[in-house]
Amino acid sequence: MSPTEREWRGLRRLELTPTPTPLDRAERLSDHVGAEIWIKRDDVGAIGVAGNKIRKLEFLLAAALAEGADTLIIVGARQSNAARATAASAALLGLECHLVVDGDGVGAAEGNLLLDQLFGAVIHPSGVQDWAALERRARDLEEELARDGRHPFRMPVGCSSPMGAVGFACAYEELLQQLDEEQVVAESIYHASTSGGTHAGLVLGRKMMQRGPRIHGIDVGDLYEDAAETIASLAREAGALIAVDHEFSVEAVEIESGHMGRCYGSITEQATAAIALTARLEGVVADPVYSGKALGALLEDATRGRIKGPVVFWHTGGTPACFAMPYQEALVAAAGAAESGPGEQPG
Ligand SMILES: *Cc1c(COP(=O)(O)O)cnc(C)c1O
């Protein structure tokens, strides 16, 4: 299948997956925690096990193709959903894809790293851990590939450039249409945030539409010195691409920390319990690195009576990490705990 190119607010957009993604009312979960919860299913889609990165890639890759790119380069952690989504999209578009991953060797090909290989990506273990060093390796690789006559396009970390963020302004408009059709007035959206493109795009979308639910980001990466500031400027730069001239204030960015655990990728009991509960009540699977932590935050706020809803949980995907160690083990334990105490509430 070759994706259709469309236009959105004057920008090229590749249709990598059918939209709108489903918006489902989570009835049993809502009853359980005492707040009306809707789930925006960006974990559902037609390409590469889906997830939020697809929305950013629709705009980023349209721009890359317009520039004549034939090769993509992306850096990421081994369980990077951005890398996996990029690898899948590259396969669909017939582009070469290079992943610069952290640490030595490829090791066990589990979860996303297994999928990266299935999608035919060339994996470069970098031998380094920090982002700056990974970026340097990617720049060197870009020069090498260009010398070999290729036209490489280097992807932003987490696909979060202003162009990538535009994908979520577009997504906000999509959600508002669905909420209108359901005649639901939602108070807020909860979603997992790391590189900030999702959050910035949603904030921009809300500005553009001049109405709709507030955006409540749950920081699960602690990537930035000042996340709110980074997200505010990302929203402004993304806005400039679609003729929205607005200076976003730091106060306009609602980002909550305290749900990540020790560091990015840490296993938290709140997240694994929330994943197990939601799986059991709704047949929906969140992941332990991102979406499960945002879900844990939402369920905590609901059970403590801090939100009544309707509230939208934006399911950003990430499911493949469930099938990688050590998450697999933690989820088995959480499923066991949910079995022994079905009345238990997370938090
Ligand atoms: C990347 C990712 C996020 C965070 O999105 P950002 O735009 O990078 O902030 C959330 N959930 C999942 C599953 C992701 O892969």
Summarize this structure as a short list of keywords or feature phrases.
347 residues, alpha/beta, 6-stranded mixed beta sheet, 4-stranded parallel beta sheet, binds pyridoxal-5'-phosphate
Explain the overall architecture.
The chain is 43% helix and 16% strand. By secondary structure, the protein is of the alpha/beta class. The model has no long low-confidence stretch (mean pLDDT 95). The chain is built from 11 helices and 12 strands. The strands form 3 sheets. It has a 6-stranded mixed β-sheet with strand order 3-4-12-9-10-11, with helices on both faces. Strands 7-6-5-8 form a 4-stranded parallel β-sheet, sandwiched between helices. The structure holds pyridoxal-5'-phosphate. Pyridoxal-5'-phosphate binds next to α3, β9 and α7.
Bound molecules: pyridoxal-5'-phosphate
How many strand units? 12
Helix content: 40-55%
Proportion of residues in β-strands = 15-25%
Task: State the strand order across the main sheet.
Answer: 3-4-12-9-10-11
Number of helices: 11
**Spatial separation of the terminal alpha carbons:** 44 Å
Output the radius of gyration: 19 Å
| Helix/sheet category | alpha/beta
Mean pLDDT metric: 95
Provide a short characterization of the protein structure.
With 347 residues, this protein is an alpha/beta fold. It is built from eleven helices and twelve strands. The chain has a six-stranded mixed β-sheet, with helices on both faces.
